[in-house]
Amino acid sequence: MGALTAAAILFGAFLILLFSGVPISVSLGVASLVTALMFLPWDDATYIVGQQMNVGIESFSLLAVPLFIFAGNIMNTGGIARRLVDLALVAVGRVPGALAHTNVLANTLFGSLSGSAVASAAAVGSTLHDRQKEAGYDPAFGAAVNVASAPTGLLIPPTTAAIVYSTVAGGVSVSALFMAGYVPGILMGLVIMTIAYVFTRRQRYPKLGRVGMAEAARVLLRAVPGLLLIVVVVGGIVFGVFTATEGAGIAVLYTLVLALAYRSMSWRDLKEVVTRTVTATGIVMFLIAASAGMSWVMAYTGIPGAITDTLLSVADSKTVILLLMLLVLLIVGTFMDITPAILIFTPILLPISEELGMDPVHFGMVLILAMCIGTMTPPVGSVLFVGTGVSGVSIEQVVPKLLPYFAGLIVVLLAVTFVPELSLGLPGVMGLLE
Amino acid sequence: MTTRDRLNRVRRVLGGVLAAVAGTLLVLMTLLVLYQVFTRYVLGTPAAFTEELVRYALIWTSMISAAYAFLHRKHMSLLFLRDKFAPPVQRGLIVGTDVLVLVFAVVVLVIGGTMLALSADTNYSALLGVSRGLVYTIGPIAGVAIVFAQVLNIWEDLTGEVPIETEGTD
Amino acid sequence: APTSGARTSVEATPQNPLVLTLANNLGDDHVTSQALASFAEDVERRSGGRIVVKIYGNGQLGDEPDVLGQLHEGIVDMTRVSAPGLATYDPGYHTFGLPYLFDSEREFHEVMDSPEMAEYFRSTADKGFLGLTYYSSGARSFYTRGTPVRKPADLRGLKLRVQDMRSQTDFVGALGAAPVVMAFGDTYTSLQTGLIDGAESNETVLTDSAHGEVSKVFSMTEHTWIPDMLVIGTETWDRLSPADAKLLSEAARASTERQKVAWAKRIEESVAEAKEMGVRFVTDVDTEAFRKATRPVVDRYAAQYPEVAQLLSVIESGRN
Ligand code: NA
Ligand code: NA
Description:
Chain B: Its main location: membrane. The complex is a heterotrimer of chains A (434), B (170) and C (320). By secondary structure, chain A is mostly helical. In chain A, 81% of the residues lie in helices and 0% in strands. Chain A has helices at 3-20, 24-39, 42-55, 64-77, 80-92, 98-114, 117-134, 139-149, 152-155, 160-168, 174-203, 213-238, 244-261, 267-301, 303-314, 318-335, 338-355, 360-374, 382-391, 395-418, 420-429. The model of chain A has no long low-confidence stretch (mean pLDDT 90). Helices cover 72% and strands 0% of the residues of chain B. Chain B has five helices and no strands. Chain B has helices at 3-43, 49-71, 87-119, 132-135, 138-159. In chain B, α1 (3-43) runs antiparallel to α2. The radius of gyration of chain B is 20 Å and the shape is elongated. Chain B starts with a helix and ends in an 11-residue tail after the last helix. Chain C is of the alpha/beta class and 320 residues long. Chain C has helices at residues 31-46, 64-73, 105-112, 115-122, 166-174, 184-193, 204-208, 234-237, 242-276, 287-304, 306-318, and strands at 18-23, 51-56, 78-82, 129-135, 139-144, 159-162, 178-181, 198-201, 217-225, 228-233, 280-282. A six-stranded mixed β-sheet of chain C has the order 7-6-8-5-9-11, with helices on both faces. The chains are: A mainly alpha (434), B mainly alpha (170), C alpha/beta (320). Chain B binds chain C through residues 40, 44-46, 48, 51-52, 115-116, 119-120, 122-124, 126-127, 129, 132, and chain C through 65, 69, 72-73, 88-89, 157, 159, 164-166, 168-169, 178-182, 195. The complex binds sodium ion (NA) (2 copies). Residues 111-112, 115, 153, 156-159 of chain A line the site of one sodium ion.
């Protein structure tokens, strides 16, 4: 049986299960098992999927994922997010459309800390929603800006997306990925601000009142401990003071101490935070476990090699192949969340990108950015759902307002894909690339 | 006490135990990671055992947390297509899904996991000298917990009882 | 074993060959990977296409302990592993991770090529695998960011990355250093940033993994000679006719001879390249002091595992 037959069985079974509503992790596991059964006796197939699901999550580096989720949840509950929003308000308050820009800036700051686009969309969106309403903002417009900018935090470190990618890509340096994310992430934020500026100028939304120096200083001071966390955690990881996992552990300790100092978290809140973290851990880690089973079956049956050969024989220009890959990623992103998409598509597309001479760090940025766009599209968009949910508008109202941002972000995606320096410049200068 | 009350109580107890164990492990792993940094920078001699212990604890935490997420139907899935079907078809898909999860837990986690644990029985870890067979027993343990969770979920599907507790996640 | 294709080498034909999977977690351009590729070609040629060895390189099927589990279950047929990794199934293989068993490369090859050693490799069929042949991985030495290591005291308090094997943490600990177990992929950045002070490996690590950029002193302590093993599952071995079993063994041995030559050449190239990178090689090492300091570890293993004691005597007798 050939690799392409195996691919047809694996992806066919997966898609049928996926669209029937079977959890993504179980769809992956069952599809892998069924494919393995085509090649191996049942006891071997069962053993191998069981083995890979266990050893796939036996990794010190992967612990960074639950720990960053933990830290993000503490930050959310502990009042650290709100202080960052206050700071953003002061920083861009005098620009026309201030509350929209505040939203983008706060998402960049907060998402950078929490490492989760969804947490960012929820925390920042709900904090700003009422103020935007008071100022006469169209709630659908406000939600669109929030949804479009929340995923910047998936590129700007610390980010669990980079850690997950690093693991499936065979240990690509987390430090390099972290530094690579800054330029694309900031570029994304600037493009959104520019588009929002054009729209808000037309709407003549009010500027915010001038903030006195004393008040500005007070707000900054209150936000400093939160900001310092980025410096400590990202700096510590990038400069090798500690590993990404240790950095995540320090982030948990730091946010916890801060939350206690602010007296904004009760014992009951903490228990709630732990339970929420446990749930998210179960979801993400079980997905990673199942995708390890799939990776083994794909390697054993030779699927990635066969797909690479097929694609390279169909198109011979690097540009065409890259555009095809982007198209695939954008389609995948419309119906799949970022973590499963990274887990499933890295083993398939990374070899192709390497064949094209792309650095794995660069490819990681392209992959994550494409998936960022995916998180804001229907029918499945975690950030879209949460972002619209907190502003009390319907998805149908928000999507038309999102269209200009999609256009802008696709331009950013093309730039990041075809200009490697945007991703590789910073880590290159710091000597983090191999 | 009705059947529903009894099953709900089972769900609450099982959920409580899973969350407590996974939560404790999560906090323990955080402390181990911090201890590792502490021993390296403050004591000057890095603790070697933490890395290994954390790796094993992560498997346990993940598997138990996964069971907890199954109990509360929190695993990520794509429902927009299913929701377009007529109610009887939807119901069929829901029951089918929950049965499939149960079968998967039995075949891969309980049976495959037991085979793995047995074959790794004499495989001792480099630093702590614990048998990896022991580490991998979490597969069958979590598998059995998922079977319990799915039995409750399937009963719920069939009787149409509303889930008693739903929690917000992100 | 796959459900398709020939079950045994007797029923295999060029049209329906016996396909044997071989897992290897080294990169494809590694000297030993090339030896394995030549082994596969050789088997196919010698068998007239009845036996095909299909290689999965680059660790596609998993890390060494996981692949050994797969070998044990009969999912993969052969694998290349670092010898001490086999201790899980036969404690005797701990021996190959112990320090100062061999005085020189010549002695290492003499012992490894001896008939007694060949007999030992074949003695583990009841444990699920047999050794087909070994490949040299050179002598391992300590390399550091800047500290020359001439005597055990020079290692005191240094944080050194070691392989994830008990024998390695044991003897490095016995030398007064702090052994750090970490993934090989993290070693470069950890050396760069000073998270660790050094590591231990053969000379090729300086160039092939670019560690010479971040650690400038390579001290020729030559503490271990850890060979790689090419092993075959007993279940697969039993599916070979005696003639085909012989064919496979001979092809394996022949690949070892080719690998020896290629390895020596590679080491020479690496040393020259590393010197160009500015790595200093420290050769005036007090080997005797290291041997003395680590002897208790060897004795402890011999006392704990009769298989180790047995293999140590095989090594002793092969040394003449
Ligand atoms: Na982030
Ligand atoms: Na989407």
